[in-house]
Specification:
Elements: H1 2-10, E1 18-23, H2 33-42, E2 48-56, H3 69-81, E3 85-90, H4 98-113, E4 121-124, H5 130-139, E5 142-144, H6 170-174, H7 197-206, H8 230-237, H9 239-244, E6 262-265, E7 282-287, E8 290-294
Parallel strand pairs: 1-2, 2-3, 3-4, 4-5
Antiparallel strand pairs: 6-7, 7-8
Length: 298
C-alpha cells in the first residue's frame, strides 16, 4: 500500500492529502518502533506521509483493555520521544473508560519526555468521564469523534446518570479543545452514509437519526447539553482537522495565501432546516486550486 501511495504521489495522481497511520502490535511494545522509523524515513511524499502510529486500547464491545497498561505507557512514551503522533482507538462502554487509560499513557509520556506540541489523538471515545475533559486540554490531546454515530440506537439502554459521559461534543468546544470530527469509513459497509461529512454536521447538531428525524423531533434528544452549533461542527471538520495534522497554516479555511482546498454546495447550510443538512450535495471540489470533482448534474 505504501508503495502504491509513493507511485501515485510521484505521478501527480493524488487528489487528497494523506497522513497515514501504522498499526502498533500490542504484543511487541517498544521493539517495533525501529520498523516504524524505517517506514517513516522511506515513505514521505509531497501529498502523503507517515507520522502517526495507531494503537487499539480496547476492542469493539469488549469491556477490556487490549494493552497491558504499563506496556502501553512505555510504548506511547517511546513513540512520543521519536516524534510520532500517537492515535489511540478508545470506544468504551458504560462504566468502562479506555479514554482515561489512554490519557494516562499520554500523561506518562509528557512526564518522561516533557510536554511538546504533539497533537496526539484519541478517536471514537464514545465514553469520556467529565473529569477527563480538562485532561485533553491540559495534555494537548485531540478528541476525534464520529458525530454521524450520535444518532444510532447503540446505547438506548444507557442509565440516565451515565448519559452525560456519552458521545461528548459540545463539552470539547466549551473547554476550548480543537476537537476534529471524522468518519470511521471504510471499517464496515454499514457506515456508507457516515463517511459523508454533511451527515456528521447534521447529527452533531441534532444528535438524532438523520434518516428518521424531522424538525418536530429536535426536542426529543436525551442529552441536549452536548448538541453543537453548526459553526462549531464546520470548524471541527475543517480548520481543526488541518490543525490535527499540523496544516492549519496551509489549509482548513478559505484565506489568502492558503491552499485552495474547498467545496461548492448546492445549499447554504445556514439557511435550511438542520434536519436537511445531511441531504445537501457537493457540486464541485477543488484541491490546491484544481477542480477534482464536479457533480454530473452541475
Amino acid at each position: 500500500m505504501l508503495k502504491a501511495f509513493e507511485d501515485l504521489d510521484n505521478a501527480g495522481k493524488l487528489t487528497l492529502r494523506y497522513d497515514l497511520g501504522l498499526w502498533a502490535d500490542e504484543t511487541k511494545g517498544t521493539e517495533q518502533i525501529g520498523r516504524f522509523k524505517e517506514a517513516r524515513d522511506k515513505y514521505q511524499g509531497e501529498l502523503y506521509k507517515i507520522d502517526t502510529i495507531k494503537i487499539f486500547s480496547d476492542g469493539v464491545g469488549d469491556n477490556q483493555l487490549v494493552w497491558d497498561q504499563e506496556i502501553l505507557e512505555e510504548t506511547v512514551a517511546a513513540l512520543d520521544k521519536e516524534g510520532f503522533r500517537v492515535y489511540i482507538h478508545a470506544i468504551g462502554n458504560q462504566g468502562f473508560y479506555p479514554s482515561g487509560n489512554s490519557l494516562d499513557a499520554f500523561e506518562y509520556a509528557a512526564k518522561v519526555n516533557g510536554k511538546r506540541d504533539s497533537r496526539h489523538v484519541i478517536t471514537h471515545l464514545d465514553w469520556v468521564r467529565e473529569d477527563d475533559v480538562s485532561r485533553f486540554k491540559d495534555l494537548g490531546v485531540i478528541p476525534v469523534p464520529q458525530p454521524a454515530w450520535f444518532g444510532n440506537d447503540w446505547y438506548d439502554d444507557v442509565r440516565v446518570e451515565e448519559l452525560k459521559n456519552l458521545n461528548r461534543m459540545n463539552s470539547y468546544f466549551e473547554a476550548g479543545i480543537p476537537v476534529a470530527s471524522s468518519s470511521d469509513f471504510p471499517s464496515t459497509d454499514t457506515f456508507k452514509r457516515d463517511m459523508y461529512p454533511l451527515t456528521g454536521l447534521e447529527v452533531g447538531i441534532t444528535r438524532l437519526d438523520p434518516d428518521k428525524t424531522t424538525e418536530d423531533d429536535l426536542n426529543k434528544v436525551v442529552w441536549p447539553k452536548e448538541k453543537a452549533s453548526l459553526e462549531d461542527m464546520i470548524t471541527s471538520y475543517t480548520i481543526n482537522g488541518a490543525h490535527l495534522i499540523f496544516q492549519e497554516d496551509e489549509r482548513g479555511s478559505i484565506e489568502a495565501g492558503k491552499k485552495a482546498d474547498l467545496i461548492v454546495l448546492d445549499k447554504n447550510l445556514f439557511q435550511i432546516p438542520v434536519t436537511s443538512i445531511g441531504e445537501a450535495k457537493v457540486l464541485m471540489t477543488f484541491f490546491e486550486g484544481k477542480e477534482v470533482f464536479r457533480h454530473p448534474n452541475y
